[in-house]
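Internal tracking record. Fields below are filled automatically when a chain is submitted to the structure queue. Please do not edit lines marked as system-generated. If the sequence contains nonstandard residues, flag them in the REMARKS field before resubmitting.
Queue: standard
Priority: normal
Entity type: single polypeptide chain
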Amino acid sequence: MLHRTLSCVLVALHAASITLLALALPYPEINVTDFTITSSSSDVVARTDPMRAVPFTPLLAPLRCIGNNVFCLSIQMANEAYKEFLHVDWGGWSWIEDTPGQEWRTFGFAGSFTGSIRMHCRQDSEDDFTFSFGQLKSSYMSTYSRELRGHTSDGKTMSAVSAKRAVATRKSWVDFHVWCRDWENVKAPNATGLL
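SYSTEM-GENERATED OUTPUT FOLLOWS
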């Protein structure tokens, strides 16, 4: 009985220390008032619970993306960020896989593909990006949206905010990850080196 009581106390102390640590960490790009949903402004974020979604890390990639001859595109599903494929110019995907909790969706491509996707990062925004895998021995993605952030598996970053609107790579089999920058967790870039 004493052992169980001590275990409960230790768990409670551990949870309290994590809460205090989380409150002490700075979140420079996140303003709590930004997440109040109103119908009169397109500047406010339309989705709630921004701290659940974090930038994509290789640890979240489906196993079939790792070490296989396949292109993978992983996009943020959390907070209903992903909307639809706008069009497919060339090719088709081989499979689709969601992470547990459906926070990320990965499209797998066994061959060349070119198309555009629409995401919805803010209440009235339409955040589109175009991407291409395996065309003319290179792959690329680009966007005009200042709300999207993208990353390639060989270390390039797409961000219209930092004038990196388009990125291209000649890596044979590359993976792309795209998410809404408002949901970035500042702890993740330091831990993974993605940004």
